[in-house]
Amino acid sequence: MAKKEKAPDDGTQPAKKGKLKLIIIVVLGLLLTVGASVGGTWFVMNKKVQQAETAKTESAAPVRLPAIYEKLTPSFVVNFNMNGRQRYMQIGVALMGRDQVKMDALKAHLPQVRNQLVMLFSGQNFDTLLTPVGKELLRQQATSSIQELAQKQVGQPTVEQVLFTNFVLQ
User: Which of 71, 78, 83, 98 is the most exposed place for a label (fewest CB within 10 A)?
Assistant: First the structure.
């Protein structure tokens, strides 16, 4: 039987294997370098985007200004006729806002503010005002009434709250 003949050993086979290994190592090195470059770039860019978003969030957060109080003097005195008896209510009022410029603009309209409050106070039920809930409802109604008036006259609600500094029923 004939034996297979071996190819002459002239060194061509080992040279092919060595070159193939070198090419694979170089290609893997290039892939790792490109991958590291892309990953590093993404990491740095993502960090900058997060810092920019954080800066936007911090700058967009509203800064709460200190409260400014404008006391309306003299106090409001309103009379009620209840079951043939004359009843009186005296209320001291202060307006609370946070923007001095807008509060000054509203001062020009104080006669309208006082009128609005007198009309609101005189239309109340005396028995309802005897309860704490009734007083709080009146305060909330006064706040919304003044905010509507300020919206018409100044262009913004301006007044955050109407506060009662004195409340006497007789």
Answer: 83
List the beta bridge partners of residue 166: 92
Q: Give Cα 108 to chain centroid, integer Å.
A: 30
Phi-psi group of 11: left, alpha or beta (phi > 0 → left; psi -120 to 50 → alpha; rest → beta)? left
Q: Which residues contact 3 (CB under 8 A, 6 or more apart)?
A: none
pLDDT at residue number 14: 58
Peptide bond into 111 cis (omega under 30): no
Would you place residue 137 in the very low, low, confident or very high pLDDT band (cuts 50, 70, 90)?
very high
- pTM of the full structure: 0.62
User: What is d(CA 38, CA 94) in angstroms, rounded to the nearest whole number?
Assistant: 63
Task: Decide: 160 and 98 in contact? Cβ < 8 Å.
Answer: yes
The predicted-structure confidence for 58-87, as pLDDT tens digits, reads as follows 655 567 889 999 999 999 999 887 888 888
- 62: tokens are 């509203």
For 159, the enclosing helix (H) or strand (E) is strand 159-169
The tokens for 77 are 């005195």
Q: Are 113 and 72 in contact (CB under 8 A)?
A: yes
- Helical (H) or strand (E) element with 167: strand 159-169
Q: What b/e readout covers 17-55, taking b as 16+ CB neighbours within 10 angstroms?
A: eeeeeeeeeeeeeeeeeeeeeeeeeeeeeeeeeeeeeee
